[in-house]
Amino acid sequence: MAVTATLTADQRRLLARMDHYQITDQPHPRWCGLQAYARDLARAICHAAGGADWTAQARAPFWPSPLVDQHTQTAVTVDRRLLVVLTQTNPAGAGPERWTITVNGRPIPHRPLPGEVPHQIEPVPRSLWRHLRGIPVDPCDRFLCQAPATVATWGASTCPPHTA
Percent of the chain having pLDDT more than 70? Predict the structure, then answer.
């Protein structure tokens, strides 16, 4: 954390620079892994939402660095009515990565099954499917906390106040 305090405003702005990608159903020969992942995720989200059409965008840090908080996002619009955003947050320093899903700007519970990684293609649409059908998900993993588990990390799902 001491290193982040020594960054100038220009250095922080440079490290906050993002690459933006328009995702289409047809792959492009110069696509990076994020673009192929975003396309597969968009298809799965559209299917889980019962949609017929989707558009997607992805953004990622231009210069990944542990010196500042960084976010990678995939935004999928289904049938021009449902906006689903998967955000991966890498906190400055050595904090664990966190994944959240929002639907039309509101966080939804995200709980991968044991052995799954929070950003795999299968758990994200499953969380959306459960949310759209009103299927309850186990609450926060912290003892006695009954708040919705909207933040997934490696092996745990917690509410925002218990995300460390």
Answer: 95
